[in-house]
Amino acid sequence: MATRLLCLLCAAVAAAALAPARLAATHTAQLMRTASRSGTVCMGNTNDFKVGLTIEFDNSVWRVQEFLHVKPGKGSAFVRSKLKNLETGSTLEKTWKAGEAFPDAQVDKEEMQYSYDDGDDMVFMNMETFEEERIPRADIAKNDFIKEEMLLTVLKWRGKAIDVQVPKSVQLKVAETEPGAKGNTAQGRTEKPATLETGAVVNVPIFIETGELIKVDTDDRKYLGRVN
């Protein structure tokens, strides 16, 4: 009898220990089913922050421009961020709790070709349907690395074009740079500024000349090498 009572007691303790995990799993499953039915986007948190990340809050879409994780000596950790509203162009400085959740922006992607400028707008064309989208140049990150006829991915939110994904690396011609002078290396100078065909300015080795095709990192705005 004592042995049976001990077994029943152990089983009750085990069931009680498993109850919270089962409840959490059930709750998670319910949330996932609700999200699936409602079309809710995936959730992220401040640990996922990176420059260029597109998020949703306050019924609008924002791009992370800057962020800083702060761990004070006292109190809870937090994250400072600078966000740009991709609908209005306004900026916002927002402080988040560390690990605070937010919905990733549900954006559609469409391959389009950069065609021309129309005032302050850059015009992109779908080469299959020939439909055009206009996006203010100021709203496009890294716009000075985009050249005419370049194929790019245009991001749309709720049917509206809001941003353009510029590749991490591009190949562009050097439109203007000063000649590399002999003796500069010996004097400690190894780089010089160069203006590319799209207007972007990057530092290049002193041996690079006007007219050369080079590869550039658009995130860091750095020279990666010559293109043969």
TrEMBL record:
SMART domains: EFP (SM01185), Elong-fact-P_C (SM00841). GO terms for biological process: peptide biosynthetic process. It is found in: Cytoplasm. The keyword Protein biosynthesis applies. GO terms for molecular function: translation elongation factor activity. PROSITE patterns: EFP. One of its GO terms (cellular component) is cytosol. Pathway: Protein biosynthesis; polypeptide chain elongation. It comes from the Eukaryota. SUPFAM superfamilies: Nucleic acid-binding proteins (SSF50249), Translation proteins SH3-like domain (SSF50104). InterPro entries: Elong-fact-P_C, NA-bd_OB-fold, Rib_uL2_dom2, Transl_elong_fac_P/YeiP, Transl_elong_KOW-like, Transl_elong_P/YeiP_cen, Transl_elong_P/YeiP_CS, Transl_elongation_fac_P. Keywords: Cytoplasm, Elongation factor, Protein biosynthesis, Signal. Residues 170-226 form the Elongation factor P C-terminal domain. Residues 1-17 form the signal peptide. The keyword Cytoplasm applies. Its main location: cytoplasm. Residues 109-162 form the Translation elongation factor P/YeiP central domain. NCBIfam families: efp, PRK00529.1. Belongs to the elongation factor P family. This is Elongation factor P. It comes from Chrysotila carterae.
